[in-house]
């Protein structure tokens, strides 16, 4: 379950503040001795200045979204998520965003970082161009509830509609359903989806058409359509054989580039299209 960072009193708030304070204290103790080249002494994590430019929106007081800049001292091991935590815990407790595992597995902290859909917990600050402000804004195509938090219900509604679960006929087996490695490999790639919505919210068709299923729903349909143990492929293909289904894809490859798990999303969509054509023939 993801956590929405909304107020300083939330879970982990005090622990986070203490951790940040401890780190700041350590920096103060260690930061003086640097050589002529400005490099950090042996054993010290290098620090650098970062300008974080966050798109803010509070429906209770804002008519329109606004940009807000924060100047931070960060470290070589920090990620964008750490910078957001620093702002929330030390500067502005009203900053709101989702996060949970912080290890690229839960998918709850998907956002647009420097114009690209990414997971905040996977982007190291040192890998970005620090000579410019780092822009952080909510993913596109879904209603913004507050700051970086969007309403995920339209996304999950499309996901539920493709029946993302095993449909098996016959009596319940007395042991596990056996599947060969070759059969598993057919759909192995699409089992990696973490439902972060990075692919769907990077799709221009989804931005402009609120009815399109979107890449993530099709990826999760693919996972079962090509599962040799499943008996519901025809049902899912019929659902996706719709003007708002797979045929709305324009093959821009935005989804494949945005996926933090490296899933070949465009290829999976093409395979579902091919399955529909083969079925028709």
Describe this entry's structure for a reader.
With 281 residues, the chain is of the alpha+beta class. It is built from 9 helices and 9 strands. A hairpin with a 2-residue loop joins strand 5 and strand 6 (116-119). It is elongated.
Q: What summary fits the major beta sheet?
A: 5 strands, mixed
Which sequence of strands runs across the widest sheet?
3-2-7-5-6
> Would you state the CATH class of the largest domain?
Alpha Beta
* Series of secondary-structure elements, N-terminal to C-terminal: EHEEHEEEEEEHHHHHHH
Which structural class best describes the helix and strand composition? Answer: alpha+beta
Overall pLDDT metric? 89
- Work out the count of structural domains: 2
CATH architecture of the largest domain, by name, is Roll
Low-confidence stretches: 7-38
Described by the principal axes of the CA atoms, the overall outline is: elongated
Percent in helix = 25-40%
Q: How much beta, percentage-wise? A: 15-25%
CATH fold category name of the largest domain: Ubiquitin-like (UB roll)
What's the Cα radius of gyration?
Answer: 22 Å
Output the CATH homologous superfamily of the largest domain.
Answer: Beta-grasp domain
Number of strands: 9
Protein name: succinate dehydrogenase
Region (Disordered): 1-45
GO molecular function: succinate dehydrogenase (quinone) activity
EC number: 1.3.5.1
What structural keywords apply?
alpha+beta, elongated, 32% helix, five-stranded mixed beta sheet, Fumarate Reductase Iron-sulfur Protein, Chain B, domain 2, two-stranded antiparallel sheet, 2 domains, 9 strands, 281 residues, Ubiquitin-like (UB roll), single chain
């Amino acid at each position: 379950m993801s956590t929405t960072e909304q107020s300083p009193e939330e879970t982990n708030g005090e622990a986070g503040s203490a951790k940040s304070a401890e780190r700041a204290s350590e920096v103060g103790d260690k930061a003086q001795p640097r050589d002529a080249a400005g490099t950090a002494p042996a054993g010290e994590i290098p620090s650098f200045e970062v300008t974080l430019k966050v798109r803010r929106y509070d429906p209770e007081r804002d008519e329109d979204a606004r940009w807000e800049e924060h100047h931070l001292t960060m470290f070589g091991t920090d990620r964008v998520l750490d910078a957001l935590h620093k702002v929330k815990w030390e500067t502005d407790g009203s900053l709101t965003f989702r996060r949970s595992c912080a290890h690229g597995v839960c998918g709850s902290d998907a956002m647009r970082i420097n114009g690209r859909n990414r997971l905040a917990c996977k982007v190291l600050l040192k890998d970005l161009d620090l000579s410019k402000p780092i822009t952080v804004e909510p993913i596109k195509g879904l209603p913004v509830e507050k700051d970086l938090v969007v309403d995920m219900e339209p996304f999950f509604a499309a996901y539920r509609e493709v029946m993302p679960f095993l449909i098996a006929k016959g009596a319940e087996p007395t042991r596990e359903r056996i599947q060969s490695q070759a059969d598993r490999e057919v759909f192995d790639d699409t089992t990696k989806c973490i439902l972060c919505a990075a692919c769907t919210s990077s799709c221009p068709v989804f931005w402009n058409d609120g009815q399109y299923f979107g890449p993530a729903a099709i990826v999760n349909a693919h996972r079962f359509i090509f599962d040799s143990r499943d008996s519901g492929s025809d049902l899912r293909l019929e659902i996706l054989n719709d003007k708002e289904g797979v045929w709305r894809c324009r093959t821009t490859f935005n989804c494949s580039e945005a996926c933090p798990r490296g899933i070949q999303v465009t290829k999976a969509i093409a395979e579902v299209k091919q399955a529909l054509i083969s079925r028709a023939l």
